[in-house]
Specification:
A hairpin with a 5-residue loop joins strand 1 and strand 2. The protein starts with 5 loop residues before the first helix and ends with a strand. It has helices at residues 6-13, 118-124, 265-269, and strands at 28-30, 36-38, 46-48, 59-64, 76-85, 96-99, 107-110, 132-137, 159-169, 177-179, 189-191, 199-201, 213-220, 229-237, 243-246, 255-257, 277-282, 298-307. The chain has three helices and 18 strands. The strands form four sheets. Strands 10, 13, 14, 15, 16, 17 and 18 form a seven-stranded antiparallel sheet that branches. Strands 4, 5, 6, 7, 8 and 9 form a six-stranded antiparallel sheet that branches. With 308 residues, the protein is mainly beta. It is 6% helix and 32% strand. It is elongated.
Amino acid sequence: MRKPPALVAILLGTTLAIAACGSDSGDETTTESGITVSGEFGDKPELGIPDEEPSDELVVDVLTEGDGAEVEAGDFLLAHYLGQTWEPAEGDEANVFDNSYDREQPAGFTIGQGGVIPGWDEGLVGQTIGSRVLLSIPPDMGYADTPPEGSTIEPGATLVFVVDIVDTIGADAGVSGTPAADLPADLPTVTGEGADKPTVEFPATATPVTTSTSDVLIEGDGEELGEMLVVKIVQASYTTKETQASSWDEGRGALTLTPNQLPGMSEALDGQKVGTRVLTRIAAADNVTEQAPAGEPIAIVIDVIGTF
């Protein structure tokens, strides 16, 4: 399979808020490894790193044990987190390289399938919703000698994360609802139900659009949509008639996006609910890439499986 065009490659590389139950963690906790953590579940934590060498193994400390469902491999995990490197710091947040609390929005990612660093996959699968978990991650289970480009993480750094597990969406989540009526005659044919991967075919009537647009194929019957969507997608090319990328590909899974990330999607989703399936048709002029400098018309099936 060739590299997907930039439009959806960005979406696939992207990294809700449902109330989760957990007990009071207290003002400050000191772990066996000497790390201190202040704050309660849902609040931005502050970490104190001891002046000693970190373990060369993954260390998992459950600071607050939630009473929700257990996180399973393949789930789409919704979590708040703060990450910093091990070095003892002088001054507030001296070694903090990222946190979701300041963004006031949990992060979302598929867990247990290699889509995140190994320390997260191993340390979070098996935890419960509502838990606050401290992870001390050695370099070989973090970014090793190749930290993300542009980050402040040094090669070979031990990473320390506090993770608040907000919710999960199971791997079996899919579309559910009523097929939409009065669809345009020039749409590609999309088949597949529930959590199955949709199949996209291009009959002779399915001609590319000159203006990018979106149409609802299935009207969902779940909860009302929020500002962020949890979705699975399939992208196919009008030119080759082949699937170029999908959330069902190995190691991908669901992802998050806002309704306005794709043309016409906000209008199409107005009044819709979780379980909705949308077909977005991208005109060639809106999908110019190195692989297709003249532009390539594509069709993207979006299954909305969650929201926040």
